[in-house]
Amino acid sequence: MSMFSPSLRLRWHWLPWALGCLVAPVAALAQQGVPSGAVVAEELRQQAVALEHGEGVARDPVQAAALYCRSARLGDAQAQYNLGWMYANGRGVPRNDTTAAFFFHAAAEQGLAVAQRMLRVVGGLGAEVPDCMRPPLIAPSLSAVATPGVDYQRIAPRKIFELVLKMAPQYQVEPQLALAIIAAESNFNSQALSPKNAQGLMQLIPETSERFNVKNPYDPAQNLRGGLTYLRWLLAYFEGDVALVAAAYNAGEGKVERYRGVPPYLETRAYVQRVLRAVGAAVHPFDRKITRPSPALQNIRTALARK
Questions:
Q1: Rounded to an integer, what distance in angstroms lies between the CA atom of residue 83 and that of residue 66?
Q2: Predicted model pTM
Q3: Hey, CA dihedral for 235, 238, 243, 249, is it positive or negative?
Q4: Domain residue limits, the chain
Q5: Domain 140-305 belongs to what topology?
Q6: 43 included as an active-site residue
Q7: pLDDT digit string, tens, across residues 161-184
Q8: Alpha-carbon gap, residue 195 to 182, rounded angstroms
Q9: Which of 13-22, 147-156, 185-194 has the highest mean pLDDT?
Q10: Annotated catalytic residue, options 52, 109, 174, 185
């Protein structure tokens, strides 16, 4: 039996359509420089909305759910919410509160308040990754970049560039990876402060600074030491997989493990793509003595190998 009363079902029925209509047109997104993955996700979601509600096409909730999941896998929070709603109500898919909770949780993590409210209704976090979310989250072409695409010597401030060249090898981190992370995190601003209180060049949150004994995160050398120590640890933890390391640096290693790969967040996916292109390699050397690999690594590889 559904936990939704008839009135609650009616109240929530219009929300997926309404949320879909609130997003800027695809062309406008492209003109604003939104990452291409976001544009594709938006297109898929618009198609799914039309199929779910029969807007200009024959209503097909099964196909709508499939398209929503493709968009959700790319990181579209509203597609994640819409699909969670379908699972919570058994529309086009079997009713499953656990699966609904998975999608509501993913959308809530990206800041969608209505998803957070629905998560409280269905309960739980939906720990199991649904089948449609398990194919590779990074296109093979992005993992096979032959050469670095960014010359940071021309972009980075000279003192920062030289400091990275000096320090990165001491932590068994290739300078190009460290520079790519710095560029993505702070754009080489040693005084950068994010709304989430991430600080300095490599945007260390206070917990990370404490973890790696960084006393002044706005001091470039100290910040680099903390960030490079964390990168060295992540490289060992994910056995040199650059995509997973970048995703973990952006979203946390726990999220990578939970989602069995790059988390389905638009921000994280764009971040990983940027780092991969800049580094020009999918694999980085790592020191097995630093830490044991993630206990989820085999499951992650199995998930990523599925086509």
A1: 9
A2: 0.79
A3: negative
A4: 6-131, 140-305
A5: Lysozyme (1.10.530)
A6: no
A7: 999 999 999 999 999 999 999 999
A8: 17
A9: 185-194
A10: 185
